[in-house]
Amino acid sequence: MATAEPRSILQRRPGKSNVLECGVCEDVFGLQGDKVPRLLLCGHTLCHDCLTRLPLHGRAIRCPFDRQMTEIGDSGVWGLKKNFALLELLERLQFGRESPGALLCDVSMDTEKETTVHCDEIEDHLATIYCTVCSTNLCAECAQSTHNTRTLAKHKLVPLHERPREKPMCPLHQTHAIEFACLEESCLCNPLMCYVCKDYGKHQGHKDYGKHQGHKHTLIENDAEQVRVSIIDTLQHVKGFLDEVSDSARRLGNAIQQMEGCSRTVENEHGFTHTEQIHGTAEEAHVHGMAEEVRICIRRYFQGKQTNKQTNRNVLMSPQMHGTAEEVRICICRCMEQQKRLASACAVHGTAEEARVRVRRYFQDLHETLHRQENAALSVVDTHVREKLCSLKQQQEDMAVVVSQVTTICLECEKMLQQDDHKILLAKQEIRSLLDTVRKQQQQFCDLPEQLNMDAGIPLTFTKI
To answer: How many whole angstroms separate alpha carbon 211 and alpha carbon 88?
Structure first.
């Protein structure tokens, strides 16, 4: 998935700071990747790459400009909010550079002009009717007054929005309308021509595109219709593609929420969504749960081992037993067996007090070992969670960029469908390039399921020692 080329969007001005540049590395921000702008708590914006290089102070990083601290969670700098105002501006600059000339940008202006056409008879009135014979724009009053004779009443009057599109005039032969499009590879950038250009001008010698093979000319209506058909066909497939990407992005968001906050977004049978808390079973030996559940499970596991050791120690150190004679005999036998095992393991010799001291030291060492093992296990879990969150959020950002870019392209292509034939043909190459970009992104998304892992579960297994 292509990212914006920062240097091609903006030109650096030596000696001046640019609001679209990172204040640390002085590189222009990007729409995704290492140069995505992210906000600190103090309000300053740095690129993702520079944020990852800032030293950690516990669970916080310090702003290099005002020294204010910003806390970060398990996901690291990925959890910091992106500066969407800058991203929107960057996206506009990038798309403005890649759009088909100025044609796509003029669509809204052309629509506005069509809604504000003035009457050819009385300029203060807005035209609502068009005469196909007179080729005039008229208001209702003027249309009735100018066409009330028997001869003029035969003229065809149509609503203004149904008037036939006017053919543009040839820039080289201004008295002739553009009627043909050249299909030669060398003429794709400017294929429009009148019959003079076709027969006597720069397109002379290019063959006609008619009933015979090898012809290189066609009517602009036919060529424009083919372009419209290709746009419509692509848009129909793209709508389903956008739904798939949006659904995958939503499921990625749920997986991230489950790992970070033990919650998920659930859709009911009526199509409404709500957030609910998730509770797992941390008592099982094989756990597939969220990060916090796994941490709790690890702590309980090591607490249980400490409790068992403490119980054995209390039994050994307590000479008083209560119960029936049989129960006392059983307890004595168990105590003697435990003392034998402890004696063989610790090789304790000496007075009773020395034995107690050695027992305490032995179990103290066990406690310290368990504590170290617990910290090491929690560290492994935190590292796994951090890496998995980074991967999920990167995939989520990539999908958001794809949805934004494809949606923008689709909207512009839908607007182009309403344009004149000659405008569509002038933008033909750029439209094809945009549609090819959409197809490539669709193909890349189809290859993602093999790499995409949306499971929020963290596999954990305790082995008996």
So the answer is: 50
Give the span between the Cα atoms of 185 and 201, in whole angstroms: 17
For the whole prediction, is pTM greater than 0.85? no
DSSP strands (E only) in 99-226: 129-131, 136-138, 157-159, 180-182, 192-193, 217-219
Q: Residue 164 corresponds to which amino acid?
A: P
Token reading at 103: 């044609």
- pLDDT per position as a tens digit, 23-55: 888 888 888 778 888 888 888 899 988 998 888
Say how far apart CA 47 and CA 166 lie, in whole Å: 50
CB 125 within 8 A of CB 143: no
Q: Which residues lie below 8 Å from residue 269, measured CB to CB, with a gap of 6+?
A: none
Q: Ranked by mean pLDDT, which of 298-307, 332-341, 374-383, 445-454 comes out on top? A: 374-383
Residues in the chain: 465
CA–CA dist 463, 303 (Å, integer): 15
Q: Which structure tokens are listed for 236?
A: 């129909």
Judge whether residue 281 has pLDDT over 60. Answer: no
**How far is 385 from 437, CA to CA, in rounded Å?**
34
Give alpha helix (H) positions in 127-219.
140-146, 195-199
Which tokens is 153 given? 């009443």
Confirm if 413 and 239 have CB atoms less than 8 A apart.
no
Please check whether residue 263 is in contact with residue 278, taking contact to mean a CB–CB distance below 8 angstroms: yes
Distance separating alpha carbons of residues 190 and 167, to the nearest angstrom: 16
